[in-house]
Amino acid sequence: MSLRASVAYILTRAVAGALAMASLALFVRVLGPSEYAHLSLGLAAAALSSSLLIIPLNTTLGRLYGEAALRERLIATLSMIVMAFGIVLLIAALVLEWQGASWLARGVLPAAALFAALQGLLDFVAQWSTSALQPRRYSRLLLARAVGVLLLGFLALQSSASAPAVLLAMALSCALSLAISLRGSGWPSLKLYDRALQSRILRFAAPLLLTCALSYLLQWGDRYLLARMVPLAELGRYSALADFTQQTLILVCSGLGSAWYPRIVQAWGAQDKLEAQRLMSRYALVALALILPAATGFAVLLAPLAAVLFGAAYRDLPAGLSACLVLAAIIGAAKSFYFDIPLLLAQRVWRQALGIALSALLALLVMWLAVPLLGISGAALGLLCGQGAGVIYSLVAGRGVLRGQLDLRAAGKLVLATLVMLAVLLCLPHDTLIALALSIVLAGASYAVMLLALDVDGLRSQWLRGWFAAYRERRR
């Protein structure tokens, strides 16, 4: 069941990622590097509210949902907190804009606040769907949002090629996707709001608030630092490439985590540590099968993709920028959706916060030293150093909970399949959009063929057994 759910989540994330890629290309091309820098800073402002409340609450929901007796009251209590926070956030943004206290370009802060409020509610419903093992509602939610961002963003740019217009379009797409995905499912009754749960939620979420605030510093601190150290157009170029990388790689990896993490939590909550360990080991192999080809392919294709999709301003990228951004994104995704799982299961949230603090401080220190020498490549290098240090810390701090066991023989086969895929990529042209699409299809096909040929994790044997069973059934 986990494998089928993984496929459903990964496909949903892949389609949503492709639509997000198209939306990003549209925004970058129309806005240009300088205006896209304003959009990036607006998204950074919106992400702050998510880091301070929504992510801690969602993590609390994902961890406590395994206790069946709490579920209805937990959903009602958390949903009321999320909605109240969104209203307060929007009012505060309007007051700051009216008083002229915002340092962002005019109109960006209120639009970012509206987007943050609706995006927070959408993220909450998405977490609820994954915790309840409802991939269909989760898929509707993400796909409707991705389609809405592309279509509404296009319409918004026709009237005003500005960052506030794009942010408003993104906010409206969140509202529409919520309406579509929740149709007929029923919102939890607010009468179930439980004040007694507040203290337990606070005990679990308070350390996570610090963790998420530090994660925000690690993820978005480079934008604020670059805004003070490089021209606005350079910030726009860096932000476009970083957003492009994260929206594809991290979204796909999170789709895999969405399928496996709730099952690991439920096994752990039922005190079935053997099953939790089995799921964790299985998850490690499936994650490696996704991460290896994704990181390799993206490292090769990021520069030509940026040149084709984003335009002339992105043709000549600084040395090392693409590789550092790709590695930082994939290592950060692996940390968040795999290496931090033991810390969350054991509720070692303070240790997790300490690890992220060290990662953020190291990343910003390297950026501060490297940007004057390397430009925006220095920011990417700092991000890579911080994420790499975070993985090492998580491995040490999570010892004694679950072991990250990996079948070395199967892992070797995955490495061989990835090398064959890399050879295919390097032999194909990447100068046009059609050539890039063909390269991606052929490389993916070569990787799939190698997985079957090498019988990774019994994949070929399972496929042949299923095929012969279906054939015999038809013969009858």
Automatic annotation (TrEMBL):
Keywords: Cell membrane, Membrane, Transmembrane, Transmembrane helix. The chain crosses the membrane at residues 7-30, 36-55, 75-96, 108-126, 138-157, 163-180, 201-218, 238-262, 283-313, 319-341, 353-370, 376-396, 408-426, 432-454. It is found in: Cell membrane. InterPro entries: Poly_Biosynth_Transport, Polysacc_synth. Its main location: membrane. Pfam families: Polysacc_synt (PF01943). It is a multi-pass membrane protein. It comes from the Bacteria. PANTHER family: O-ANTIGEN TRANSPORTER-RELATED, PST FAMILY PREDICTED COLANIC ACID TRANSPORTER. This is Oligosaccharide flippase family protein. It comes from Uliginosibacterium sediminicola.
